[in-house]
Amino acid sequence: MAQLQSIHCSDYLIHFGNESYNQLNKHLKDTNYSTIFILVDENTHNYCLPYFMSQITGDYNFEIIEIDAGEEFKNLETCSGVWSALSELGADRKSLIINLGGGVITDLGGFVASTFMRGINFINVPTTLLSMVDASVGGKTGVDLGLLKNQVGVFNNPVMVLIDSFYLKTLPHEQLRSGSAEMLKHGLIYDEEYWNKLKDPAVLNTKLIDDLIHRSVVIKNEIVLQDPHEGGLRKIVNFGHTLGHAIETYFLKNDDKKSLLHGEAIAIGMILAAYLSTQIENFPEKKLHEIKSTMLSYFNKVDFGKDDYAAIIDLMKFDKKNSHGNINFVLLKNTGQSVFDKKVSNELIIKAFEFYKN
To answer: Residue 333, exposed/middle/buried by CB under 10 A (0-12, 13-18, 19+)?
Structure first.
């Protein structure tokens, strides 16, 4: 396969495939780090770390720090444990943290590095499809506060990001599918041609996956470069997330509901947002049905009862994209054309849920 071009972000590069390890080895050789820490969870420790270590040339003293796997451990308590471990293992301002894992590891590891001794270098090596196409770009770091997603964090860029689709072989199928939701989103908000390529879920299991990941990263990077701190245009990457995050949180905190993966919740959010787009932005109805059928070809339908609606709507008020007490939505004018900061009534949101159900 041809080597994919490295992508220039604001002040760092995202490298792909074999080239990523060439760049990493060069960087480690040229930068005299006092200690190098690798942050993993139990899954990436077992399934990703051995392969990663086999790509390192040169003799370095790596310290491995392992945290529990799962969104429920993406909190300040886990950060506190990692900060303590860094201190006990003699980390200083010339140390490096390599975050080897999915979105939880890269978000939390980036936040830990950004705040330890007021900031040390970190490199992200995303190992899930979701973290490759989403968390790899844009410098967002952070953790959840209770059940509220990503409430505490800072914008801070890594030294570099390494994307190697080899790690996808270690993923269960539902995790691979979960990441595809963000790719579908990139097509809907920015690139109709890309959306059309993704309409068949079988494409995830083909050799095209590397090119598709690369295109997703390019799209997100183009948006972020125009609006690094989400003052305007960058808000469009939250398409499907206003309701999606609320749904994800609601299912996580309800013992009688089966937790949803991020992508599963966001896919529902995108169907709901597409319905709202037809009502508010005259988004074509034919395309609404196409979005619904595409999402449901990737993800199983989820049951909602009427009593769930109010609780989910209530959770939306904690969304970070809100301002002045208003809940703001990203909607579509057409495939590849999005608008942001749109107000939506609760009545319309309930109609969107009814559309999803029927």
So the answer is: middle
| Same domain membership, residue 302 and residue 198 | yes
Number of domains forming the structure of the chain: 2
Half-sphere exposure of 235 (CA within 13 A, CB side): 20
Is 345 domain-assigned? yes
CA distance linking residue 131 with residue 175, whole number of Å: 11
Sign of CA dihedral 156, 322, 253, 176: negative
Domain span at residue 186? Answer: 175-357
Is residue 265 within 8 Å of 247, Cβ to Cβ? Answer: yes
Both 217 and 161 in one domain: the answer is no
Final residue of a domain: which of 151, 171, 191? 171
Indicate the pLDDT class of residue 1, thresholds 50, 70 and 90.
low
Q: Give the model's confidence band at 323: pLDDT under 50 very low, under 70 low, under 90 confident, else very high.
A: low
100 and 70 in one domain? Answer: yes
Range in 112-121, 177-186, 203-212, 256-265 the model is least confident about: 203-212
Measuring CA to CA, which residue among 185, 184, 309 is closest to residue 235? 185
Instruction: Give the length of the chain.
Output: 358
> How far apart are alpha carbons 358 and 353 in whole angstroms?
9
Are 15 and 114 members of one domain? yes
| Residues 6+ positions from 95 with CB-CB distance below 8 Å | 33, 34, 35, 36, 37, 86, 120, 121
Question: How many Å from the N-terminal Cα to the C-terminal Cα in the chain?
Answer: 44
Predicted confidence (pLDDT) per residue in 25-79, tens digit: 999 999 999 999 999 999 999 999 999 999 999 999 999 999 999 988 999 999 9
Among 175, 183, 173, 170, residue whose Cα is nearest residue 210:
183
- The confidence band for 94, taking pLDDT boundaries of 50, 70 and 90, is very high
Kindly tell me if the per-residue pLDDT of 207 is higher than 90.
no
* DSSP reduced 3-state for 200: coil
- The CATH number covering residue 346 comes to 1.20.1090.10
| Residue 1, in any domain of the structure | no
Residue 113 lies inside a defined structural domain of this protein: yes
